[in-house]
Amino acid sequence: MNVIPVPAEVVPDPSVTFTLRPDATIRSDSAFLGGYLADLLRPPTGYALPVVEVAGAAIELVLLPAAIEGARSNISGISDFPDESYTVEVTAERVTVRGRTEAGLFYGVQTLLQLLPSTVDARTVQDGPWTVPGGRIVDRPRYAYRGAMLDVSRHFFGVEVLKRFVDRLSRYKMNVLHLHLSDDQGWRIAVDAWPRLATVGGASQVGGGPGGHYTKAQYAELVAYAAARHVTLVPEIDMPGHVNAALTAYPELNRDGVAPPPYTGVDVGFSTLGADLDVTYTFVRQVLEELAALTPGPYLHIGGDEALSTSPEDYLAFMNRVQPLVTATGKTVVGWHQIGAADREPGRIAQYWGNTPDPDNDMRAALAKGDRVLLSPANRVYLDMKYDADTRIGLDWAGHITVRTAYDWDPATLLPGTPDVIGVEAPLWTETVETEADIDLLAFPRLPAVAEVAWSPQPARDWPAFRARLATHGPRWTHWGVGFHPDPEIPWP
Ligand code: ACM
């Protein structure tokens, strides 16, 4: 049983094996999922696998009317997320996946795909037999928020790349994609009230390439694609620092009325919105309103990190005016943990990106104020850190991060006290990341490692077992076209 993330409960039945046969059918209570599963299984098996209406199919996807006995999620932040629990029951006759919600059923299907031989991930016909080990799995996530962040500002990535990234996240039961949509190097989302943000502010990137931006139609298409895979988009506009791209587009956002040139380097901390300018708040309010209208999910991320050109007084004045603007859109504030210094907005989430065993004063303030906490410890889950000195891209300011380093920690004990941890997110900053192959190299295998940290109960996971399971996923990634880092601690086949 090589499932990642490792399920909460597995009861194997070694006397039983299910084999998918050429005449098998699929029946699904979810119209999307029946087709989704058939589309994935038909190419490698070569079977027709019709999706039928009559019960008794070889694969049954069942939406339950009520909670699954013993499988109900009991996790922080549950009100923002559906019940994601599921069961998979494998007998000689059939595989039955049950969930109380579409999300739960989707995760059960992911588990089923991983119970099949790894050749199921090929897109051309492979030899069977297509067996699934007998038994029963009862599973639900440890944390409600299981995410990754992609920085599309330092280097821009088109919607097709993001869709494939969503696919990869969802195969490992991750349910949030946080998009870092603005920074000094580029503004990546169209805003009708301020059109030059995208057309001028989005026209470059690190190294001076053409950059780019998402139209509202493209962004909506991505939102819908992700939603079908139970991935929520969390859009970030980083403020009050990291705003050079916006300042290049609109001279009036600058205190001296002069637009700076585009920035194509990788330094941080040199730009700021004027906390004392009225236009700043008109700008922020209109941007947030348009972003909220594009966002069915509950969160808007307002950055707040590395505002090194903003005085501490201005930072507090800015954040204390801007956080209520988020709330006014009906969304919940998320910010890098420096927002802990500002007043607490109801339900606020502080994203901890610290690099030491001890949280800094801003994080201590967030904890003291009772903020919900999203864990992104830089020395554990920053996917832009190199694996080792030889990694061909990446940074190392938070250290080298091997697969084991990314895996071998407990979110419950990272911070002092008993913080209200809603989950874990792995950020991928793209100063050195230029292509989809670069994304894949840094994300695999660490992304599946973080997925297990966020999903699986602590007692169910340990490094030796994870290492062995992870090794069997290498061939799957190869079938996906993902060029991954062959971490030397993993016994790859
Ligand atoms: C960050 O890495 N500046 C949040």
In which order are the strands of the major sheet placed?
8-9-12-13-14-15-16-17
Ligands = acetamide
User: Which value, in Å, is the CA radius of gyration?
Assistant: 23 Å
Largest sheet: 8 strands, parallel, barrel
CATH class of the largest domain: Alpha Beta
Could you name the ranges where pLDDT drops below 50 across 5 or more consecutive residues? 67-79
Overall tally of structural domains: 2
Q: What is the total tally of β strands?
A: 17
End-to-end separation in angstroms reads: 16 Å
Structural class: alpha/beta
Give the averaged pLDDT, no decimals. 95
Q: Which architecture of the largest domain would the CATH scheme give at its second level?
A: Alpha-Beta Barrel
Shape: globular
CATH H level of the largest domain: which superfamily?
Glycosidases
- Name the beta content range: 15-25%
Q: Count up the helices.
A: 15
Q: Helix amount, in percent?
A: 25-40%
CATH T-level fold name of the largest domain: TIM Barrel
What's the gist of this structure?
With 493 residues, the protein is α/β, with parallel strands linked by helices. It has 15 helices and 17 strands.
Give a verbal description of the structure.
- Helices cover 30% and strands 19% of the residues.
- The protein has 493 residues and is of the alpha/beta class.
- It has two domains: 9-139, Chitobiase, domain 2, CATH 3.30.379.10; 145-460, Alpha-Beta Barrel (TIM Barrel), CATH 3.20.20.80.
- The strands form three sheets. An eight-stranded parallel β-barrel has the order 8-9-12-13-14-15-16-17, surrounded by six helices. Strands 1-7-5-6-4-2-3 form a seven-stranded mixed beta sheet.
- Bound molecules: acetamide (ACM).
- Acetamide (ACM) is lined by residues 305-306, 336, 353.
- Acetamide binds at residues 305-306, 336, 353.
